């Protein structure tokens, strides 16, 4: 089975001579959750609309499970579940009636056992026969996800899925999506303006700006060699200047020395080497702290201070 579920190859979108998406390329791997980020007007929603077949592509290729979205739309869309903005639900119908209706529309035989399985997964089995108009926003979002999963897609695409949810609802949705990726091996692409939530939820983030690919960041350490990742390490010592001087002539040069705190950029394996070095030089160490760069720091660095929409 191919590990690449979705691939964008030099995708461009122009409207009335204006370039909205410019030679955009990236991949989405199976069983991972991707955050899709960008400043205001970066082109996230335009890209998503092209991915789900709601907007034409000017040039380039979008492949879903190897099927071209333009040349073989039906086969490509058979692998996609999506909620663009808010779930499209019939509020005067019950949750069960909504799911049965969408099951008939999806073009693929959906068994009653599949419906029961998904309903149980999103924990709506106790309210399935109530009208959707009586559902909370979080319940409607979960029903929307259930509807998007009926045909067992390879990728679930969600555009701002936490809009309007309270903190409990946001956490609930996050937990469902993480379980979904882990237990069903589904890829998930999430566009959101909540950087802190993306950081908690996602394995990776793809960042675009002005319709162009800016970069990709790994958020989950399981996808990289932990020992080789560099990070900022703060050593709280008795005499900061003496500690810095002891490092002169070595390959370890302080990034900053302030208020007896010496900051260096190190891999995990280098931390005990510095501790041993300071002990040999009779420098008392009171605390060693790893300062992780937040997703917000990374995003602002990549976009030069751009604003999330």
TrEMBL record:
Gene Ontology MF annotations: ATP binding; ATP hydrolysis activity
Stored Gene3D superfamilies: P-loop containing nucleotide triphosphate hydrolases
Keyword rRNA-binding: no
Residue ranges occupied by any ABC transporter domain in the UniProt entry: 6-235
Keyword Transport: yes
InterPro entries per the UniProt record, alphabetical: AAA+_ATPase, ABC_transporter-like_ATP-bd, ABC_transporter-like_CS, P-loop_NTPase
Keywords associated with the record: ATP-binding, Nucleotide-binding, Transport
Top-level taxon in the UniProt lineage: Bacteria
PROSITE patterns per UniProt: ABC_TRANSPORTER_1, ABC_TRANSPORTER_2
Family: Belongs to the ABC transporter superfamily.
Name the UniProt record assigns to this protein: ABC transporter ATP-binding protein
Protein species of origin: Paenibacillus agilis
């Amino acid at each position: 089975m191919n590990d690449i579920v979705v691939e964008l190859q030099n995708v461009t979108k122009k409207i009335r001579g204006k370039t909205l998406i410019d030679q955009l390329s990236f991949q989405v791997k199976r069983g991972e959750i991707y955050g899709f980020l960008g400043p205001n007007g970066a082109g996230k929603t335009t890209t998503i609309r092209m991915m789900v077949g709601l907007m034409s592509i000017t040039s380039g290729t979008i492949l879903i499970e190897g099927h071209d979205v333009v040349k073989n739309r039906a086969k490509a869309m058979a692998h996609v579940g999506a909620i663009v903005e808010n779930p499209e639900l019939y509020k005067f119908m019950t949750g069960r009636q909504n799911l049965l209706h969408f099951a008939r529309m999806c073009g693929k035989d959906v068994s009653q056992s599949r419906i029961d399985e998904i309903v149980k997964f999103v924990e709506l089995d106790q309210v399935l026969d109530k009208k959707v108009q009586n559902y909370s926003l979080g319940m409607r979002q979960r029903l929307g996800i259930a509807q998007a999963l009926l045909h067992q897609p390879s990728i679930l695409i969600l555009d701002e899925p936490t809009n309007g949810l309270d903190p409990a609802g946001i956490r609930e949705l996050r937990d469902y999506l993480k379980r979904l990726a882990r237990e069903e091996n589904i890829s998930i692409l999430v566009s959101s303006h909540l950087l802190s939530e993306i950081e908690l939820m996602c394995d990776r983030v793809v960042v675009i700006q002005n319709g162009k690919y800016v970069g990709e960041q790994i958020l989950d350490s399981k996808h990289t060699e932990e020992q080789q990742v560099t990070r900022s390490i703060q050593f709280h010592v008795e005499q900061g200047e003496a500690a810095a001087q002891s490092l002169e002539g070595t390959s370890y040069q302080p990034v900053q020395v302030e208020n007896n705190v010496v900051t260096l950029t190190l891999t995990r394996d280098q931390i005990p080497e510095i501790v041993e070095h300071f002990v040999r030089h009779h420098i008392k160490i009171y605390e060693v702290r790893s300062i992780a760069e937040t997703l917000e720091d990374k995003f602002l660095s990549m976009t030069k201070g751009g604003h999330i929409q």
